[in-house]
Amino acid sequence: MNTSKVTSPDRIDRPEAVEPIFPEHAPRRIPGRWKSVRLLAVTDLHAIWQSWLCRGFFLVTLILTVLELKGMQAEQKAASQMLEAIYVTYILIWMHGVVFIAGNTLAREQDCLNDAILSRGLTRGEYFGGKLIARSFAILLMLGCVIVPSSFWAIRHDKLIRTETGYVISNTRNTKVEAWDPKKVFAEAGGTVAERKVEQGDSVHAGDILAQLDDRPLFDEVETERRNEENAKNEVQNSQRRFEDAQRAVTQAEDALERAERSLIAKDLLSKAEQADREMEIRSKKREIKDSESRLRVAQDAIVTAQRSVETAQARVRDARKRFGHATITAPVSGYVTEVNVQRGQPVAIGTQLFAVAPLDEYQVKVPIYRFDEFKKLKSGLPAYVRIEHTEFKGTVERLGATTQPDRWGRDSNFAVVRFKGNGTLGLLGLNADVRLTLPPGEEKKTRATALWNAVTGHGSDDLETRTSSVTASWMWVGVAKVFGCALMLVSLTLFLAVLFRSALIAVLAGIGLWHVSNLLFDFVGLPDLSYLEIVRTMDKVLSGVANPFHEMAGLAWLFGFAAIFAGAALTLFVAQDPPK
């Protein structure tokens, strides 16, 4: 039996919406302005990628940059030197390729440009905006894919083989920490050790008592020398009295001689016998004067001898008292007792080493240097970094070994002694330490190429700081931004020239010419820092971090500002050339 489906009147009268069978018959929505610009930019990027000019530019810059980096790595250049060479190469050489790529923007559609824009329903602003965005993005992408990875690779290379000062490092592991220049304490007086107050490893301050000698024999020696001094002083007094007695005897003999001579004056009244007696008396008085003068000289010499004896006795007393004072042995400096070579009751002689005291917070490590080419670069005063477990201390190379010595494993090597402070950290003696020595950069071989490069980049003999400093990420981005700013300015300038002259060849040649004379133009308008020669000359200071950050930010603002001005002028000029309706 046949059954039929009953349909309600409402169902029959109401028309049903019929969905289109083919989606392409659906109504299309006209894209908006920004979507049109995006679609045009993507289309132009695809065309750029298929261009062998862009592919060749990217591959050549990539290969030459890698080769340049590997060559400078072999010479152990600092990251600042590596990146400076790359950035300067892009500014001086590869910016010409940027001009060629930007100048070729409108060349393919120059003949049918107006008809193409009108037939596609696009505005000139949308068309040129897409081209400008695509060319700028493509240039930045090609530059960034080479410059940015190279920059981070160079910085990582610095971290692996250099310190923050940019010098090559030499690593040594498991070196024993020793005390720096221990002060040896010797016995300055002989005797028997009565008491020892310290043990090895004790901490002492300057002046603390280390040991005490039996001072009784020393005290007796002091008393004996003091009595000898008193006897010498008494002998001086006795000599002075004898000298005074001799002086009086000489005076009395001279007076007697004078009386005898006066009595002889009236010799005519005297008999011959009396005259002979008087003459004999005069001769006797003269002999007495001579004897008295001789005794006077002897007494005077005895005074000098006695005074010398007093001085000798006083010196012996001082020496005895000094030896008595040395019976108490004290620490010469504050630090740790590293050696104890004496026991209680042990007799010691003058000059015997008793103790050794290491200065407080002063340590040393003897670093073996197995590579002689590294050892030749070392010199006293170079920085060194001593790492003990998780703590790092900064020191200096104090001295270098004149001959090779075996290390703790018996291998012969040169060595360097590194001195460092523990910053109050206790318990460092005897620990293992890892040491990094900073080596000065090798001397640059002067050739015609290096002389020309230094002339172009403005390097001189006073640029040691900028040539050896490492690069931080922030200053690296400043250098990258300078390269990007120059590239964007050239892209917008070349597009402006292409719109102005309507010829790709003229735009390229004019762009290159203006780029080379831009140094004079920027000087003329009062912005000499924007000239590419000045950017090249100061690139080393930027990468080494010694440039003024505010000054560099102002320069970047001017570069990107000029790029925006040229882009706006090109867009305005291109829109103004709209064909008649």
Averaged pLDDT: 77
Structural class: alpha+beta
Strand order, main sheet: write it out: 1-10-14-12-11-15
Per DSSP, the total helix count is: 15
What string, H for helix and E for strand, traces the elements in order? HHHHHHEEEEEHHEEEEEHEEEEEHHHHHH
Unreliable stretches covering 5 or more consecutive residues:
1-23
The main sheet comes to: 6 strands, antiparallel, barrel
Explain the overall architecture.
The chain has about 575 residues and is an alpha+beta fold. Helix content is about 55%, strand content about 15%. The protein has a six-stranded antiparallel β-barrel. Strands 2-9-7-4 form a four-stranded antiparallel sheet, with no helix packed on it. Strands 6-5-3-8 form a four-stranded antiparallel sheet, with no helix packed on it. A hairpin with a 5-residue loop joins strand 13 and strand 14. Helix 4 packs antiparallel against helix 6 and helix 4 packs parallel to helix 12. The longest helix has about 55 residues. It is elongated.
Which tags fit this structure?
581 residues, 16% strand
Question: Strands, helices and their partners?
Answer:
Blueprint: H1 9-13, H2 33-50, H3 52-74, H4 79-103, H5 113-120, H6 124-161, E1 168-179, E2 183-186, E3 191-196, E4 203-204, E5 209-213, H7 216-263, H8 272-325, E6 328-330, E7 335-340, E8 347-348, E9 353-359, E10 362-369, H9 372-375, E11 383-388, E12 391-400, E13 405-406, E14 412-421, E15 432-439, H10 448-457, H11 464-468, H12 473-501, H13 504-524, H14 532-544, H15 549-576
Antiparallel strand pairs: 1-10, 1-15, 2-9, 3-5, 3-8, 4-7, 5-6, 7-9, 10-14, 11-12, 11-15, 12-14, 13-14
